[in-house]
Amino acid sequence: MNGHDNNETVITPWEVKGKIDYERLIEQFGTQPLTDKLLRRISGGGQGLHLQLRRGLFFSHRDLDVVLDLYDRGTKFVLYTGRGPSGPVHIGHMVPWIFTRHLQEKFGVRLYFQMTDDEKFLISDETSLAQTRKFAFENALDLIALGFKPEDTFIIYDVQDIDLLYDVALEVAKRITYSTAKATFGFQDSTNLGWIFYPAVQAVPCFIHKKLTGENVPALIPAAIDQDPYWRVTRDIAPKLGYFKPAQIHCRFLPGLGVGGKMSASEPETSIFTTDPPEVVKRKVWNAFTGGKDTTAEQKKHGGDTDVCTVYQYFLYLFEVDDKKLEERMRRCRSGEVLCGDCKKDLVEKINSFLAEHQKKREKARNVVEKYHVKR
Ligand code: TYM
To answer: Going by DSSP bridges, is the β-strand pair 247-251/219-224 parallel, antiparallel, or unpaired?
Structure first.
């Protein structure tokens, strides 16, 4: 199972394309839907649900209930997520990171964050190790700018920290056959050896807490669903190595600004990078695909379609935290009271004011980034 199906929908850790039916993915990948009961448990009651939960952006999981049961009985967990540093960070990457920050604060737990400079080197013919290592450092600034604290956040740079990872990677690799890897990831005869070994490296942070502290606790991984194949193979071998199976909580993809597909760094004109200057954001948003009609007259008469509108999705995922205002925006669009230009203008303002702040924090992070580097 590698996420390919007949309608040319492809979801692998390295490629996402076609129309994504999230309900179907739950069946296809064998994950569990996030129930209301679990949502309430993860929110701890009281303050209401986090935006990404109440809007259904996180929709599926594996063993979240198990991790919460253990937590209630006194066994903490660690959070684990990461980034493949192939270029600058885009705002889609930040969707799971923002939620990770929320969980870290809520549960008072550690985060291990993996920078896969090895992965991004191996999968691209054009990319050099020097480039991915540089981006790993630059991308760490984005993570820190989101407010993660150094005492609880441990960044692992694969190439630099391979001595920390290698023995566990070997234990993992020895227990996964090529046939399983091929079926899970769709490897071909032409796939290079490094790429075939790489999933063992991405498994390691699920277990690293024990090596660093002596404590055996489960890892909970917030990420978009494209990373799921890695966890399928890791979950299979975890008990054989004496570890808990890693748990996951999966989010949907923030779409790109074009027609269909997720926001993806390989399509820069339809992605908003955290380093984009205001005029670039403006140009990209101005060219965005919306759910609007061809003419103003038609739009006023029939209204727009927020379901397919990328601009609306950006308000939903990140840039309109007030549910009432979001609902009002939807109503006004569908009734033809607002035109796409109005929404685009609002979105440009929201993104640019967010980025202005983020870019300042990102620069400040240069002074402290070393504090986050995992220590042995
Ligand atoms: P990468 O760099 O492709 O993506 C980083 C994180 O962002 C998520 N993501 C998105 N989320 C919402 N909308 C989008 N458009 C979007 N695009 C990407 C990804 O699911 C991921 O969570 N191999 C990994 C690096 C990695 C990792 C991990 C990720 C190593 N260990 C553990 C998650 C958890 C990668 O290349 O991610």
So the answer is: parallel
Ligand 1 centroid, distance to 42 Cα (angstroms): 22
Residue 224 CA, ligand 1 centroid: distance in Å: 6
Choose which residue among 57, 227, 253, 266 to substitute to test ligand 1 binding: the one with the highest number of ligand atoms within 8 A of its C-beta: 227
Measured in whole angstroms, the distance separating CA 17 from the mean position of its chain's CA atoms is 16
Instruction: Give the residue among 343, 350, 327 at the shortest CA–CA distance from 290.
Output: 343
d(CA 201, CA 49): 34
Q: Which residues contact 185 (CB under 8 A, 6 or more apart)?
A: 2, 12, 13, 199, 229
Q: 97 with 81: CB under 8 angstroms?
A: yes
**Which pairing describes strands 78-83 and 111-115: parallel, antiparallel, or unpaired?**
parallel
pLDDT digits (tens, 9 = 90+) for 15-27: 998 889 999 999 9
The one-letter code for the residue type at 99 is F
C-alpha to C-alpha distance for 208 and 235, rounded to whole angstroms: 15
The reply to whether ligand 1 has any atom less than 6 angstroms from the CB of 304 is: no
List C-alpha distances in Å: 225 to 60, 62, 238, 258, 308. Answer: 8, 11, 20, 21, 20
Provide the whole-model pTM.
0.96
d(CA 30, CA 23): 11
Residue 191 DSSP code: S
**pLDDT band at residue 43 using 50, 70 and 90 as cut-offs:** confident
CB 171 within 8 A of CB 241: yes
Our answer on whether the CB atom of 351 is closer than 6 Å to any ligand 1 atom is no
> For residue 257, with 0-12 CB atoms within 10 Å meaning exposed, 13-18 middle and 19 or more buried, which class applies?
buried
pLDDT per residue over 309-342, tens digit each?
999 999 999 999 999 999 999 999 999 999 999 9
Nearest CA among 314, 317, 305 for reference residue 348? 314
The residues facing 273 across adjacent strands are 90
Tokens describing residue 153: 């956040």
Kind of pairing between the strands at 247-251 and 78-83: unpaired
Q: Is 249 in the pocket of ligand 1 (CB under 6 A)?
A: no
Cα–Cα distance between 352 and 174 in angstroms, integer?
48
- Report the 10 Å Cβ neighbour count for 186: 17
Does residue 262's CB lie within 6 angstroms of at least one atom of ligand 1?
A: yes
